[in-house]
Amino acid sequence: MENAIQTTVLGGGSFGTAMAQVLAENGHPVRLWMRSAEQAEAIRHTRINHQYFPELELDSLVEPTTDMGGAIEQAELVFVALPSKVFRDVIRNAAGHFRDQQMVVSLTKGIERDGFRLMSQVLKEELPGTRVGVLSGPNLAGELVQHEITASVIASEDRELRERVQQALGNAYFRIYANLDVYGVELGGALKNIYAVVSGLADARGMGENTKSMLITRSLAEMSRFAVSMGANPMTFLGLAGVGDLIVTCSSSLSRNYRVGYAVGQGSTLDEAVTELGQVAEGVRTLELVHEKAIELDVYMPLVRGLYQILYRGASITDVVGALMNATQNSDVEFILPRQGEGSAI
Ligand SMILES: NC(=O)C1=CN([C@@H]2O[C@H](COP(=O)(O)OP(=O)(O)OC[C@H]3O[C@@H](n4cnc5c(N)ncnc54)[C@H](OP(=O)(O)O)[C@@H]3O)[C@@H](O)[C@H]2O)C=CC1
Ligand SMILES: O=C(CO)COP(=O)(O)O
After folding, report:
1. Residue pLDDT, tens place only, 160-174
2. Stretch (H or E) spanning 295
3. Catalytic site residue 293?
4. Topology (CATH) of 190-325
5. Which of 56, 245, 280, 284 is the pocket-test mutation for ligand 1 (most atoms within 8 Å of CB)?
6. Where in the chain are the domains?
7. What molecular function terms (GO) are annotated for this protein (predicted)?
8. How far is the CA of 50 from the centre of ligand 1 (A)?
């Protein structure tokens, strides 16, 4: 195709595969890097990624590979779809293959334990000289490959990168908006996973629609409050990468975080729920990190605290719900009201 962009996706899991398919359907050759030679070989022969998308026939422009060097060196645009837990190690091992000014976009929605770093920060540290962006939004992989009309946000300080990503990914079913608030867009994607777990729990317990609405709305207030305390722009949380992603992950059983919450709500232990899922649910780890950070920064996060008590301290769901409904700190104030003469806060 004229104007085809050479692309690479690192990570042959659920989202990496979905994004590779979108790129290929748009006419861009894409190397899909995965660590398993067996998996790459099977995809090459069957055109199917059996473990993650057994019903999806991959476009002929998707080339599965385990050759990390070749995949990176030949790409103009590299997308990274790896769990946050392994992100830095994989990138560090591959660092020698990247070149100056190459465009690298994180698709990962998680936080690194050491130093509470987001993936774009990891990329900047490990790959100095490259241009970095993050893509985030309400993008369930399973819906994207079904061509459900979807939108996402490319956030980067680099205008050329934003435009290139819009060009590479945009099509009749996928619309890519641009944003300059890299930190807010990325933090939104990571934080909403926690509340998807809460939402799954609530659904498993048969809680009502009033409850669900309350939970989602208060989740938005809580994640925005945290983000503002970390220096993000609260307006970003009213967009696709904030409330947009929160709504979809809190509402869909396609969300792995929701499914973990649902399983725990039905009586599984956290370990059982995560093992049964067999894919990454970033919210479980993010919860621990945000819980710790909220204490450090003294940010009021009752839902994070409640979920932490349930998942990590063995508290009963009934007790936690009771405590939340009887909470006194800030409980009767919907928004933290500004003092006279100050701007508004959330
Ligand atoms: N799925 C979705 O709908 C969306 C996911 N995301 C985000 O994308 C990121 C990746 O998620 P997703 O693809 O869904 O996760 P999956 O669990 O589906 O896949 C994870 C992928 O990472 C690979 N991997 C794990 N550990 C390593 C390692 N040490 N070295 C190399 N590869 C490794 C896995 O390989 P193997 O199969 O060999 O274990 C697999 O290919 C997450 O941060 C998620 O939040 C963002 C938007 C949507
Ligand atoms: O981020 C997602 C949708 O935007 C996917 O959520 P899960 O990781 O919970 O499946």
Report:
1. 999 999 999 999 999
2. helix 282-297
3. no
4. N-(1-d-carboxylethyl)-l-norvaline Dehydrogenase; domain 2 (1.10.1040)
5. 280
6. 7-180, 190-325
7. glycerol-3-phosphate dehydrogenase [NAD(P)+] activity; NAD binding
8. 15
